[in-house]
Every structure is written in structure tokens, then in C-alpha cells.
Amino acid sequence: MDVKLIGIIVGLVFLLIILLMVFNFFGLWFQALMSKANVSLAQLLGMRFRKVPAKVIVEAKIMGIKAGLQLSTEELEAHYMAGGNVLRVVQALIAADKANIDLDFKRAAAISLAGRNVLEAVQMSVNPKVIETPLVAGVAMDGIQLKAVARVTVRTNLDKLVGGAGEETILARVGEGIVSTIGTRGHKSVLENPDQISKTVLAKGLDSGTAYDILSIDIADVDVGKNIGAELETDRAEADKKIAQAKAEERRAMAIAHEQEMIARVAEMRSKVVEAEAQIPLAMAEAFRSGNMGVMDYYHMKNLNADTAMRDKIGGGGDGKSKA
Question: What pLDDT digit, counting tens, does each position of 95-125 carry?
Fold first, then answer.
């Protein structure tokens, strides 16, 4: 009797728990039933055990059914358990359906799981977004710096949203295109026809490989900056001047070195002359000893030296008198 009583009590407790859970989900089940969302009590109980918020799943499915979408409860649960935003995905599907945009649940779920805001992406497909580039500076052909700001109108490309580059890539490419286009024109031409920059940049297909389609590129503002060409010419002239000064200093140093070399050579030659003159008395003595030179020859040479010295003195004295 005790065992049967315990079994009856356990069964009643278990039945009570089941009834409480059924009663807890009765409101959601009845709401789904009245909305023709086709969510059974068994599925709601399963969500409880799988720790899936049944209210979110039911509301998402009702929202889709009312919008004419056929959504599976299992797909919604799987997307939630994968870490996706179920309500946002359903809202994106509804928005895409109303705008006649081809978007199914699998692709919307993939976009959501990739970290993208799928609802915002659909909204941008319907209502394009305008993004503004930072100030871009380029140098025209005539050396004048121009600073431009562009507004880029983009629309989400849902086919390339997963794996496609973002807004930063668009801004970088547009900035690069503006700089290269300015570099092929004179600054007056750019100021007179800034729309030519827009047309040239737009024709380059800068949205390739990105998650967006570029609809238009509009130059919002163009300002004149520095005369980069003149600054470069000034810097070049200053550099040429320093190079010329360095070469002149090099030539001067070489000239000084050559002069010192010549002075040294003159001193060397003078020493050789002195050395040679010192050999004359020795040669004369040797001539006397060998008999090749007599006394009369010696006195004749001395007279010649005296006459030469006298003439040099007279010549020097005549110059001195004339100068006086």
C-alpha cells in the first residue's frame, strides 16, 4: 500500500508539473492558434527544455505569417540557438517582401550570423544612404593643392553583403579616385567643373567587391590649398644651391692643396739648387788637383763673377734712382 501510495503521489506531482507547464504556455499556444501560426504545445514545451524563449519564436512566426511569409518553427529556433536575432531577421524578410526584394530566410539568417544588421541592409536597399568622405587633398597638374569633400550615395547589395567590404573601403577608394583625378587636371579646370571629378571617379567601378552599389558621387566642396609646385621648386633650388656650394668648397680645398704642393715642390727644387751649388767648390778643387784648371783660369772666372755682380748692382741701383 505504501508503495502504491508513493507511486500515486509521484504521478500526481508529475501531472501537476505538466499541467503547470501547459498552463504556462497556454496563452502562447492559443495566440499562435488564433494567428494560424501552427505552433503546438509539444513544440513550446520543447523550447522550454532547449532554453529557447518561446515568446520570441511565437511572436516572430506570427509576424511572418501575418505578413504572408511561410516560416518554419524549427528554422527560427535553429537561428536563435546559433546566436542570431530572430525578430530582426523576420522584420528584414517582411521589409524585403514589401519592397519586392528577393531575400529568403537562409540568406537573411546568414547575413545576421555574419554580424551584419540585416534589417538595416534591407532598409538601405530601399532608401539609399549618403556617406561623406573626410577631407581629401590632391595636387593638380600645375602644382596647386586642392582639398575636396565628396558625398557618396550607396545602396546595399544583398548578394555581396556576406563577405563584401564595408563603408571604409568605399571611402578609401573614392578618396584615392579623387586624388588621382585631380592630379590629371589643372586646378582652374577642377574649380570650374568639379562634376568632372564625380563622373571620372564613378566610372572606375569602385564598388567592386564591396557590399554596396555606388549610385552617385557628388563633390560637396573644393578649396584651394598650398602652392605645392612652388614649394617643391624652392626646395629644389635650395638643394641645388647647397650642392653648388659643396662643390665650390671642394674645388677651393683642392686648389689650396695644389698650391701647398707647388710650394713644397719649389722648396724641394731650391734645396736641390743649393745642393748643386755646394758641389762647385768641390769640383774646382778637384780640377786644381787634377791639373785641368790653372791659376789664370781661376782668376778669369773670378773676374767674370765680379763683372756680373757689378752689372747686377748697377742695374739695381739704376732702378732705385729711377724710382726715386
Answer: 888 888 888 888 889 888 888 888 888 888 8
**Residue partners of 126: CB distance under 8 A and separation at least 6:** 95, 99, 101
**CA-CA distance, 171 to 164, in Å (whole number)?**
14
Which is it for the CA torsion 279, 280, 281, 283, positive or negative?
positive
Q: What pLDDT band is residue 324 in, cutting at 50, 70 and 90? A: very low
Decide if 193 contacts 170 (C-beta within 8 A).
Answer: no
DSSP, collapsed to helix, strand or coil, labels residue 218 as strand
Classify domain 129-231 at the CATH superfamily level: Band 7 domain (3.30.479.30)
**What's the grid cell of residue 51?**
532554453
Q: Tell me the average pLDDT across 15-36.
A: 67
Question: Nearest 5 degrees, angle CA 184-CA 188-CA 191?
Answer: 95
**Using CA atoms, how far apart are residues 204 and 197, in angstroms rounded to an integer?**
11
Spatial distance between the Cα atoms of 270 and 277, rounded to a whole number of angstroms: 10
Backbone angles phi, psi at 144, to 5 degrees: -90, 130
Q: Please, what is the average pLDDT of the chain?
A: 82
The answer to whether 118 and 89 are in contact (CB under 8 A) is yes
Q: Which residues contact 48 (CB under 8 A, 6 or more apart)?
A: 21, 25, 54
For CATH 3.30.479.30, list the domain ranges present in the chain: 129-231
